Amino acid sequence: MIQSINLSYRSIFKICCAFVLFPLFAFVVKNADIGNEIMEAFKSNNAKNIANYFGSNVSLSIKSDAGHYSKFQGEMLLNDFFQNNRTSEIKQVQRTSHTNSSFYIVYQLKSSTGTYRVFIKLSQAAGEVQITELRIE
After folding, report:
1. Measured in whole angstroms, how far is the alpha carbon of residue 9 from the centre of its chain?
2. Taking 60 as the threshold, does the pLDDT of residue 28 lie above it?
3. Which residue among 12, 38, 78, 85 is least crowded, i.e. fewest CB within 10 A of its CB?
4. Keywords assigned by UniProt (predicted)?
5. CATH classification code of 2-136
6. Res 24 pLDDT > 60
7. In contact, 71 and 62? CB cutoff 8 Å
């Protein structure tokens, strides 16, 4: 009898752990995928795929132009950048851990016209991870 009760408690404990750990694991995997998806979009010069991660407004700084733009305006500015600067290589240089509902990714982008540092701030809003700031310097 005691052995069957212990077995039941172990089963309940395992199930509870699974319910607690699975969403955490899924969140971490999703964030890792976002970094890779953004990097692939930069590799293919795809402003639309990057803009899919913008919120309704984004802080954008590309070379010397900076400001707060709508999602559509941000996509157009990125598109202009890609027309003049075709990506030849991109690599992730730094990534912070997810704390206080935001994290950062830094890439080094090599193009036909030079090498740029790409800084991206991502924040969690309404259950979705969004780019809130993007700088290309």
Report:
1. 39
2. no
3. 12
4. Membrane, Transmembrane, Transmembrane helix
5. 3.10.450.50
6. no
7. no
Q: Is 112 helix (H, G, I), strand (E, B) or coil?
A: coil
Amino acid (one-letter) located at 48: K
- The residue with tokens 């800084």 is 119
- Alpha carbons 136 and 42: distance in angstroms, whole number: 11
Q: Which residues contact 34 (CB under 8 A, 6 or more apart)?
A: 53, 122, 129
Sequence-separated (6 or more) residues with CB below 8 Å from residue 60:
66, 67, 68, 69, 74, 77, 78, 133, 134, 135
3-state secondary structure of 80: helix
Q: Give the separation between CA 56 and CA 21, rounded to whole angstroms.
A: 31
Give residue-wise pLDDT tens across range 61-72. 998 889 999 999
Give the mean model confidence (pLDDT) for residues 95-116: 89
Say what the alpha-carbon torsion angle 17, 23, 29, 32 is, to the nearest 10 degrees: -120
In one-letter notation, the amino acid at residue 54 is F
For the chain, what are the domain ranges?
2-136
Q: How confident is the model at residue 77 (pLDDT cuts 50, 70, 90)?
A: very high
